[in-house]
TrEMBL record, chain B:
InterPro entries tied to this protein: Trp_synth_b_CS (IPR006653), Trp_synth_beta (IPR006654), Trp_synth_beta/beta-like (IPR023026), TrpB-like_PALP (IPR001926), TrpB-like_PALP_sf (IPR036052)
Pathway: Amino-acid biosynthesis; L-tryptophan biosynthesis; L-tryptophan from chorismate: step 5/5
The Tryptophan synthase beta chain-like PALP domain, residue ranges: 67-396
Keywords: Amino-acid biosynthesis, Aromatic amino acid biosynthesis, Lyase, Pyridoxal phosphate, Tryptophan biosynthesis
PROSITE patterns given in the database record: TRP_SYNTHASE_BETA
Matches recorded under SUPFAM superfamilies: Tryptophan synthase beta subunit-like PLP-dependent enzymes
GO CC annotation: cytoplasm
Protein name: Tryptophan synthase beta chain
Length: 271, 413
């Protein structure tokens, strides 16, 4: 089993969902990012999504958009992001790392170059917001031949007819975007999430992670009762936004609360 | 490059089934939007095959927009250029008068078509992005005509600079939403329109203003704008009994240009020039994606973009807000790559000079976008024989630009 599968299996064995946390690379600076990533792990994050900043993050709400602009404004280059990833891999050999971002920065030097860089830096998976299954040839083949997971997104608009196309070539886990919208804004009704996750589980053996609009330990716990993973992004990115270079301890405290809520689920289940 | 790329029998048969023009175009959108644009494609195919759709579109273009607009022989401009040209040189210049359309530009051709599609899809709300406000005004106009709710996303800087158009849109019943994200210009208003769309896909139709974005937008916008080229063909046969030798149009996203060019793509004797905004010059700040950009992915399509080595989008600059965009429609990228259309940069200063010259010589104040095409014609016409014919697309009128021009010329109003 690879790092990603191992981690999902370990969480399942503990009777809880995996906690997947997102921050933007280079936010607020390249120098500050390693401490923030360490804080995520220390707080109990199981999988790290590292955002690749882009000038035009049109699927993101204000929180992550501002993080993108802070990062680029402080001079973050693609080379820095791979250096951050490689250093993270050296410090945390067992924690899966997923790069998340937009097609243009990923593909500007070609998909083979990007896949090679991911492999060399110890990146486990990639989420590309604006390469749908219809354009898989741009990115999918290169990642698959490098052994990097291509994590696909399923949304409330992905109907049963379309789902097989999304699942074809998806690996690592399936990311269920719980609201038709942008990151960090609205929040889906729990009943809708439950129904969506059940449908997805019937269609695939991949772990199902739920994200978009998850901001509190209570929400995370509720989603964790049904999903294999819970993704929290904007709420963490907001902490980085307000505390800047000194964000690490605040991030760790918040992630610990999220993690605690998911672990409490497993005690419930056991009792 | 032409001989290394295999070309289809007709250059008018693009895009392919997956929405690609060669390597360009495609559907690079978030999964949330994919089902909707697949649905839009189906609806568009059905509409194209439905005579009632075409009939209503034609009716509105005639009775509401005022088409066909004239193909006007610009005799004084032609003569002025011949005076300084070598003996026997100086092509005859015609202007396609898109600026005489209702709302003053070519934009309305596309908005009418897309509003008809929105109605077919049962959508009661429309949104659009706008730079200087021309596409915003055209969208607000058709929203009023069709009784649809309308939101226009406009960069906060542009809201401040283009107060008359903001007021027009409000008069027409639209809500104008100032966009403060990013650089607060056209590309950011497109980002925010996409953000709104993805959150409201169930009841909202996005009327994209140019021949760009995810498939099928580049194709359907081109088809709706092709009325320009079709009319030119008919009118030129009436006026001269033959096709023109050259077509010239300004290119931002490039909807007026592709609408003019597309009906002529297989007429190999008709040369074509698309005019990009070179701003302060190609070594300074500009908006010439083909001359100064590289292939990349933004706003749903693969096309030429102004970007840095990491694929970050760089800011465009042009005195003309309608050309102030770091990308270009994907079909133009393809026509550039296969060499069918020549693309030529024209600077702010050259466009300003032509803005004034056309006003004084012909009594027509062109939009700054169109002034770029006039400037190109002024450079090319004197090198062509006097029996050659050029058609310039006068894509919009310049009333909206008089404050910008006065400012650039240092005139107090």
């Amino acid at each position: 089993m690879d790092r990603m599968a191992t981690r999902f299996a370990a969480c399942k064995a503990q009777g809880r969902a995996a906690l997947i946390t997102f921050v933007t690379a280079g936010d607020p600076t390249v120098a500050a990012t390693p401490a923030i990533l360490d804080a995520l792990v220390a707080g109990g994050a199981d999988i790290i999504e590292l955002g690749m900043p882009f000038t035009d993050p049109m699927a993101d709400g204000p929180a992550i958009e501002l993080a993108n602009l802070r990062s680029l404004g402080s001079g973050t280059k693609t080379a820095h992001i791979f250096a951050i990833a490689a250093d993270f891999r050296a410090r945390h050999p067992d924690t899966p790392l997923v790069l998340m971002g937009y097609a243009n920065p990923m593909l500007v030097r070609g998909s083979d170059w990007f896949a090679d860089q991911c492999k060399a830096a110890g990146v486990d998976g990639v989420i590309c917001v604006d390469v749908p299954p219809e354009e898989d040839a741009e990115l999918g083949p290169a990642l698959r031949s490098a052994g990097i997971h291509l994590v696909r997104l399923a949304t409330p608009t992905t109907d049963a007819k379309r789902l097989p196309a999304v699942l074809e070539g998806a690996s690592g886990f399936l990311y269920h975007v719980s609201v038709a919208g942008i990151t960090g804004k609205q929040q889906a009704a729990q009943a809708n999430i439950d129904m969506a996750v059940q449908k997805l589980k019937a269609a695939t053996d991949l772990p199902i992670a739920v994200g978009f609009g998850v901001r509190t330990p209570e929400q995370a716990a509720a989603i964790g009762r049904i999903a294999d993973g819970v993704v929290v992004g904007s709420a963490i990115v907001d902490l980085v936004g307000s505390h800047g270079d000194a964000a690490a301890p605040f991030v760790q405290q918040f992630v610990a609360a999220l993690s605690g809520a998911l672990t409490a689920n497993s005690r419930e289940t056991a009792a | 490059m032409t001989d290394t790329i295999s070309l289809p029998n007709s250059l008018r048969s693009q895009p392919d089934a997956s929405g690609h023009f060669g390597q360009f175009g495609g559907r690079y959108v978030a999964e949330t939007l994919m089902p909707l644009i697949l649905d839009l494609e189906k609806v568009y195919r059905a509409a194209k095959a439905d005579p009632a759709f075409e009939e209503e579109y034609d009716y509105l273009l005639k009775q509401y927009v005022g088409r066909p607009n004239p193909l006007y022989h610009a005799a004084r401009l032609t003569e002025a250029l011949r005076k300084d040209a070598p003996a026997g040189k100086g092509a005859k210049i015609y202007l396609k008068r898109e600026e005489l359309n209702h709302t003053g530009a070519h934009k309305i051709n596309n908005c009418i078509g897309q509003a008809l599609l929105a109605r077919r899809m049962g959508k009661k709300k429309v949104i659009a992005e706008t730079g200087a406000g021309q596409h915003g005004v055209a969208t607000a106009t058709v929203a009023a005509l069709f009784g649809m709710e309308c939101k226009i996303f406009m960069g906060a800087k542009d809201v401040e600079r283009q107060k008359p158009n903001v007021f027009r849109m409000k008069l027409l019943g639209a809500e104008v939403i100032p966009v403060t994200s990013g650089s607060a210009t056209l590309k950011d208003s497109m980002n925010d329109a996409l953000r709104h769309w993805v959150s409201n896909v169930h009841d909202t139709f996005y009327i994209i203003g140019t021949a760009a974005g995810p498939h099928p937008y580049p194709e359907l916008v081109r088809d709706f704008q092709s009325i320009i080229g079709k009319e030119i063909k008919t009118q030129m046969m009436e006026a001269e009994g033959r096709l023109p030798d050259m077509l010239i149009a300004p290119v931002g996203g490039g909807s007026n240009a592709i609408g003019m060019f597309h009906p002529f793509l297989d007429d190999t004797d008709v040369a074509m020039i698309g005019v990009e905004a070179a701003g302060e010059g190609l070594t300074g700040k500009h908006a010439a994606s083909l001359a100064g950009g590289a292939s990349g992915i933004l706003h749903g399509n693969r096309t030429y973009l102004l970007q840095d080595e990491d694929g970050q989008i760089t800011e465009a600059h042009s005195i003309s807000a309608g050309l102030d965009y770091p990308g270009i429609g994907p079909e133009h990228s393809w026509l550039h790559e296969i060499g069918r259309v020549q693309y030529m940069p024209v600077t702010d200063d050259e466009a300003l000079a032509s803005f004034q010259r056309l006003s004084a010589l012909e009594g027509i104040i062109p939009a700054l976008e169109s002034a770029h095409a006039i400037a190109a014609a002024e450079q090319v016409a004197p090198t062509m024989d006097a029996d050659k014919i050029i058609v310039v697309n006068l894509s919009g009128r310049g009333d909206k630009d008089i404050f910008t021009v006065a400012d650039a010329l240092g005139v107090e109003m």
